[in-house]
Amino acid sequence: MNSFDTLIQKDFNDQSPKPKAFGIGGSPRKNGNSDVLLEHILKGVRENKIIADKVQLREFQYQACIGCEKCRKDKICTGLKDGMSLLYPRIFESQGLILVSPTHNYNVTAWMKAFIDRLYCFYNFDDNRPRGWSSQLANQGRKAVLAAVCEQVDKNDMGFTLEAMRLPLEALGYEIIGELPVFGIFDRAKVKEKKEVLITASKLGADLAKSLLR
Description:
Layout: H1 3-9, E1 18-25, H2 33-46, E2 52-56, H3 71-74, H4 84-93, E3 94-102, H5 110-117, E4 123-125, E5 133-135, E6 143-149, H6 161-172, E7 175-182, H7 195-213
Parallel strand pairs: 1-2, 1-3, 3-6, 6-7
Antiparallel strand pairs: 4-5
């Protein structure tokens, strides 16, 4: 039985997450600026004795939410069996979450948007209209940090990138410990030349780790 099937068969609402961090990279470009930022955030986490691992969404095959509503009964996405089925157990077990995305057309990438939409299964809805809701992930001490990188130098050109990650996570019950917007960088891995940005990214990871130790 795989870890996803195990989640389906047990009351995972009663499982407390562990003080570890799970990094999610939303860039389609391998070894690009988003990858570099994620690595430095993870470095800051690990230097503070917190276990941290990562995935790159470009390496997974998964669909966007299809609105089948099967998760209303099962409390997790069972309408689709794909790469997200591998990620759900790791989200559940990790108290810390890291999301990193480049700006695509004023927003997160399609990979990150589809990932966030598939977290819809963690909501509980009542039968009123409009429906009241709660989150299965709330009140578990979950923390998150966010980073986004944009080619342009005007913060308005980053558009909704950070908000598109922050607002859904807050709704799910995560406390956002910090955010890192990076501007004026496009060429692959060019952010490696921005030492102050890399230091800030590592500090962001350290802040996340310290918040998980409280």
